[in-house]
Design a protein that fits this description.
The complex is a heterodimer of chains A (192) and B (122).
Chain A lengths: L1 H18 L3 H23 L2 H18 L10 H17 L5 H6 L9 H19 L3 H12 L4 H8 L3 H21 L10
Helix pairs in contact in A: 1-2, 2-3, 2-4, 3-4, 4-8, 7-9, 8-9
Chain B lengths: L1 H20 L6 H22 L3 H12 L1 H20 L5 H8 L16 H7 L1
Classes of the chains: A mainly alpha (192), B mainly alpha (122).
């Protein structure tokens, strides 16, 4: 709890420092938050190029917004997740899966080719299944189970109550299971 | 049935794990691009924060149309002031041009085409 609070203050303090002219603060903020935002954009869009563009755009908005930032406001990361999810929503329909198959090289060298293919199918199947969910369920499930945020953080990002987030996540997961079961053959996924 | 559902849940967590573990590495160029944006934005902010009243006035002038528009505006302002202070009596000049001796005075206080009388009747 204390660590979370301290981290929150640190991000906010860094952003205010950037607004006051400290360029090194931008480096620290980027190093700390960019991987999370990039990962979110990538899971959402399934495309490396789009994910990079969106991440850059999100941070550009952050730098421009910095002078107006108030320290007692939301967490910087929450603000970033909100912006990235909105930008991804705009790009979502244009996103394609073409990079997903090409760019995925598992880092574990002990995996057999069949394991790699299985992982890629699973990843693609999840992406496809998630794209069949309603927008808010998809976002809630992603933030909870892939970005690993807490329900209260998600509630802040989505501007909902914690209970509403819990309900959305549960319904989203149920629907995902249904979709994965129903479209097993279409999604190229099989048990085992 | 319960067991079957549990298996599906396990399947789902496998899907999530696979997706999380297969995030591609962030390309170093992305960080460079983001920091370049930060520096550029910081430069712009510095410019805005260090501006004098003269810079702001010049900007305002530029938005109004620049130097030509300023000249036009100043000339019309000066003409307005001159006309205001030294208002010329051009009635004689106009009378000679249009070959008339006098100008009719219009009485705005009288009834307009008898409208006042109509309204008084009602």
């Amino acid at each position: 709890m204390f660590n979370g609070l301290q981290k929150k203050e640190t991000d906010n303090v860094l952003l205010v420092a950037f607004a006051n002219g400290d360029r090194r603060a931008a480096q620290q903020l980027t190093g700390r938050l960019m991987p999370k935002i990039y990962a979110h954009a990538y899971y959402r869009l399934g495309n490396i190029a789009d994910a990079e563009d969106v991440t850059q755009e999100v941070f550009l908005k952050l730098w421009k917004f910095a002078p107006k930032w108030k320290q007692d406001r939301a967490q910087v990361s929450t603000w970033l997740y909100r912006v990235v999810s909105n930008l991804c929503k705009d790009r979502y329909r244009r996103a394609t899966l073409e990079d997903l198959g090409n760019a995925q090289e598992p880092t574990d060298g002990t995996q057999s080719p069949s394991d790699k293919i299985d992982e890629q199918y699973r990843q693609k199947a999840l992406y496809d299944a998630m794209s069949m969910l309603p927008e808010n369920q998809r976002l809630a499930v992603q933030l909870r189970h892939i970005d690993e945020l807490t329900n209260s953080q998600i509630a802040e990002i989505m501007d909902l109550s914690v209970e509403a987030v819990e309900s959305l996540t549960a319904r989203g997961k149920r629907k995902l299971i249904e979709i994965l079961q129903t479209h097993k053959s279409e999604l190229g996924y099989s048990d085992g | 049935m319960v067991k079957n559902k549990q298996n599906h849940k396990d399947d789902l967590s496998i899907f999530f794990e696979v997706t999380k573990s297969s995030t591609p590495e962030v390309h170093p160029d992305l960080k460079v691009r983001i920091l370049r944006d930060a520096n550029k934005t910081r430069d712009e902010l510095d410019l805005v924060q260090n501006r004098t009243w003269l810079d702001r006035a010049l900007d305002c002038l530029k938005e109004l149309g620049g130097f030509p528009s300023a000249v036009g505006f100043t000339a019309s302002l000066a003409a307005g002031v001159c006309i205001g202070f030294y208002s010329p009596d051009w009635s004689e000049a106009l009378a000679s041009v249009f070959q008339i001796d006098t100008f009719d005075e219009v009485d705005f206080t009288s009834s307009f085409f008898g409208m006042n009388e109509i309204f008084e009747d009602t």
